[in-house]
Design brief:
The chain is about 65% helix and about 0% strand. The protein contains 4 helices and no strands. It has helices at about 15-30, 35-40, 45-70, 75-100. Helix 1 (about 15-30) packs antiparallel against helix 4 (about 75-100), helix 2 packs antiparallel against helix 3 and helix 3 (about 45-70) packs antiparallel against helix 4.
Length: about 120
């Protein structure tokens, strides 16, 4: 099954899998920085480019969610949203890391796709 959102990759090397894995692990600890660095540097590797773009989109989505939770914390609902956002961030980064370590494509279902 191939469409524009899920490109087909001919052969995924172990180096590509490791770089994509680092992108997802780095996204959990450092936010958008690892995804951005790999997106800019690894332009020759389609798989790393794709997964770093996805992790970058997810980290931007999480930052927007944290800003919204901060603004909503003035009416007390944001205080509840902070741990929910953190748990979702942890779960999706782990899912991305596991998926990319196997060489599979991973898409976060709730990510805002700003970078195409």
């Amino acid at each position: 099954m191939s469409n524009d959102l899920m490109p087909d990759f001919k052969e995924i090397t172990q180096d590509s899998k490791n770089m994509a894995l680092l992108s997802w692990i780095g996204t959990f600890f450092l936010g958008f920085i690892p995804g951005l660095i790999l997106y800019v540097i690894k332009t020759d590797d389609a798989y790393v480019q794709d997964q770093s773009k996805e992790s970058l989109n997810w980290s931007i989505t999480v930052m927007i969610a944290y800003v919204a939770a901060f603004l909503l914390s003035f009416i007390a609902i944001g205080v509840v949203l902070f741990p929910i956002i953190g748990i979702c961030h942890l779960i999706f980064c782990i899912m991305g890391a596991v998926s990319t370590s196997k060489g599979n494509q991973f898409r976060v279902p709730f990510a805002i796709r700003l970078i195409k």
